[in-house]
Design goal:
The protein has four helices and no strands. It is mostly helical.
Length: 145
């Protein structure tokens, strides 16, 4: 099944790449290639180093936590980062929108409320896991008397 899915993916990729020159003009094709090159540079030059440093910092920060608590911390921060990225795009679009009826939500206020709720929920979960001594997927610590 993996081989069939892999071959189907390669076939679709080839079809898309071969269809690009017929669907796009030279300037659009050049713009697409430039966009893809910048995306690769941004990913490899910014996102990977920042996430590696953040992961190392979280490992140090969460080194005294149980594995389940560290997982909750990492999950909360990753969720917050993704939501912030999406909200940042919406905030930017809202600031340049020419039509006031488009993107009329309070994205900044909602983002702040989201982070407060996320931090409280993560803190409660981490506290609960640390207090009980075990979390999901962990067996309780056995100590010798």
């Amino acid at each position: 099944m993996r081989i069939v899915l892999g071959l189907a993916g390669v076939a679709l990729l080839g079809y898309g790449l071969l269809g690009l020159p017929t669907k796009l003009g030279p300037s659009q094709l050049l713009g697409l290639l430039l966009w893809m090159a910048v995306a690769v540079l941004l990913h490899d030059g910014v996102i990977v180093p920042v996430s590696t440093l953040a992961g190392a910092g979280l490992t140090r920060l969460g080194s005294g936590l149980r594995p389940a608590s560290a997982a909750v911390l990492r999950g909360a921060l990753m969720t917050g980062a993704v939501v912030t990225l999406i909200a940042g795009i919406l905030l930017k679009a809202q600031s340049v929108a020419r039509n006031t009826s488009v993107l009329e939500g309070d994205y900044a206020g909602t983002l702040i409320r989201f982070w407060v709720i996320l931090a409280v929920l993560a803190a409660v979960l981490i506290y609960g896991i640390e207090r009980t001594g075990s979390g999901p997927g962990e067996s309780p610590q056995k100590t010798r008397p």
